Amino acid sequence: MGGWKLEVFKMALYMSFPVALFHWFNQPEYFEKWVVETKRELYPPENKEQKDMIDDCIRKVREKHDLQLAAALKEYEGK
């Protein structure tokens, strides 16, 4: 139908299209921008106040747990 010229054109298109897309979407500027934005979405910068509140809460829970363990140990030793 189209002959060898059409086949050469189709083959060139089939080979150059993925290469062109790879080149276009893997530019360092685009990739770096995307990575930085994704990192900031997944891991936002820490807030000092929130970190202190979380640490304080963890400390309180651990102290409460230690007191419960100490009470259980005293009860066990008393038997």
Fold and architecture overview:
87% of the residues lie in helices and 0% in strands. With 79 residues, the protein is mainly alpha-helical. The chain folds into two domains: 1-45; 46-79. The radius of gyration is 32 Å and the shape is elongated. The model has no long low-confidence stretch (mean pLDDT 90).
- Beta percentage is under 5%
Beta strand count: 0
Q: Give the fraction of residues assigned to helices.
A: over 70%
The gyration radius over C-alpha positions equals 32 Å
Report the span from N to C terminus: 98 Å
Structural class: mainly alpha
Question: Any low-confidence stretches, pLDDT <50, length ≥5?
Answer: none
For the sheet with most strands, the description reads: none
- The geometry reads as elongated
Pattern of helices and strands: HHH
Q: Could you report the average pLDDT, rounded to the nearest whole number? A: 90
Structural domain tally: 2
Topology:
Layout: H1 3-25, H2 28-42, H3 48-78
